[in-house]
Structure formats: structure tokens, C-alpha cells
Design a protein that fits this description.
The protein has a domain at 66-186: Rossmann fold (3-Layer(aba) Sandwich). 39% of the residues lie in helices and 12% in strands. The protein has eleven helices and eight strands. The strands form two sheets. The chain has a six-stranded parallel β-sheet. The chain has a two-stranded parallel ribbon with strand order 7-8. It is globular and about 45 Å long. 47% of the residues are buried. The mean pLDDT is 96. The protein binds NADP nicotinamide-adenine-dinucleotide phosphate (NAP). NADP nicotinamide-adenine-dinucleotide phosphate (NAP) binds at residues 6-12, 30-32, 51, 64-67, 69, 72, 89-91, 126, 129-130.
Amino acid sequence: MKIGVIGAGNIGATLAKKLAASGHEVKLANSKGPDSIRELASDAGATAASKEEAVRGVEAIVVSIPFARLPELASLLAQVPADVVVIDTSNYYPFRDEEIKEVDSGKPESVWVSEQIGRPVVKAWNALLAETLVSKGQPASAPSRIAIPVAGDDGQAKALVRRLVEETGFEALDAGSLIDSWRQQPGTPAYCTELHLDELTSALATADKALAPLNRDALMTFFMSEKDLTHEKVVAKNRALTTNVSA
Ligand SMILES: NC(=O)c1ccc[n+]([C@@H]2O[C@H](COP(=O)([O-])OP(=O)(O)OC[C@H]3O[C@@H](n4cnc5c(N)ncnc54)[C@H](OP(=O)(O)O)[C@@H]3O)[C@@H](O)[C@H]2O)c1
């Protein structure tokens, strides 16, 4: 499949590498332009592209840029045919991103993104840490893989994204429609807790919409104050605060 990835950071570049390794033809773009990511793209098995090139002639586009910058992609994506699937990996952290009142008032993040860019999105790969994506994927034959949620309103688009998620080494759980995708946002039990399929199913079901932003902010305050923060500590703390699954 031909895939464009917008955003060449922790998540975008890793997804480009994994999707290229699965046999897809991947174009990778950032904001500074292709010359700034030639080596990165080549190491990933992808082609460095401008944003305009990256979205041309592809079947799927992954957008993996900071949350508050997503509206900048509206005019770019307006040129893209309606049947191209757009995948949103983003998460909103008000301390880091500019504060967005609608999201603070409860609009699910990816609903806001979809409105801002003027087209449907499927939310995927947002609920795992970059380090999990880099190092914890396993082949489909592995006995117990980490599962991640995939939310969206179009069944066909979601099926395509679930296949791509599986190819990157994770079980893809259908997490329902985009309006329900708050269940996989920061501060929920499904978010960056490295659960298996049955655990993730119950995590999504037990999520508390009012509690999630409070958990999100409490976790961030804790992580920022912690010396020697490791990946394992982040996952363990996420689990301890939001789930009944021990690390
Ligand atoms: N890091 C994680 O653990 C993690 C996990 C799950 C989901 N996420 C989410 O995934 C998204 C990406 O996260 P990240 O950690 O990969 O970010 P990152 O490392 O900071 O990389 C961001 C990338 O976005 C590009 N970018 C910014 N504005 C752009 C624009 N207007 N047009 C094109 N490219 C633009 C940047 O390019 P330039 O450098 O050229 O500006 C950079 O390549 C975020 O929404 C984040 O919340 C992150």
C-alpha cells in the first residue's frame, strides 16, 4: 500500500520504518522539508517528501504532529480524495500544547482534529509510548501481544487501520466510534498501560471521562518531578493510577 506519514518525530518516523518493513511504500514529511529528513527517511526505508508529495497518490495518511498544529494541515488535506484514510496519532496535553477550550470542555480530541482538518479520521497508535512502539511489537504468532485501541466511524477505514496496526506488532482492538475515543485518551486505563486484549477491553469499558484529565495532569506533574524516570516506571505509574492491573 502507498502511505504518507506527516510528522517525522518519535512516532511518525518509527511508524514509517515499521510500515516500510511490512512492504508498504512510505513517504515521510515534516515541516522543515525533505532535505532535513533525507537520512532519517532512508534509514527507515521510506522516501523523504514535502507534505504535498507525501499526500499525493496514497491510500492512507498518518498524521503524527503536535496536537495544536494539526489545524495547519486542513488546506493540505482538502486536496486529498475522500476515500484516502487519515489516521490521527495525536494526544492533547494542555501544559505542552496551547490550551484548547473545546477539548478542555470534553470534546474528544480526535473529534476536534477531524473538525479542524475537515475530514474523518481514525484514531490509532496514540495510546502507546514511543518506546513501546519501537521495542515492544511482536509478530502475530506471538502468544500474548500488547493490544492498542483503534477508534473511528467508518468500518472499512477502521479495518484498514487495524491491519496496519497489526503489522506494526500490536493487537488492534476496535474501540468503537470517534465520539467514544476519549476512552483511549491520556489519563484513562487504556492509555500507555501496555495491556493485553482482554485487559484493554475492560480498560476501555471502565474509563471515566471526568477523571481522565485529572489523572493526565497528575501523572504529568509526577513524571516531571521524578528523577531517573524510566519507561518501566512510566508504564507502572500509569497502571497504578488508572487500572487495577499490576505492573
Ligand atoms: N511521543 C510519544 O510517546 C507519543 C505516543 C503516542 C502518540 N503521540 C502523539 O503523536 C504525535 C507526534 O508525537 P511525536 O512524539 O512523534 O512528536 P515529535 O517527536 O515532536 O515530532 C513531531 C513531528 O511533527 C512535525 N511537524 C510539526 N508541525 C508540523 C506541520 N505543521 N506540518 C508537518 N510536520 C509538522 C515535526 O517536524 P519539524 O521538526 O520539521 O517541525 C516533527 O517531525 C503527537 O500528537 C503526540 O501527542 C506521541
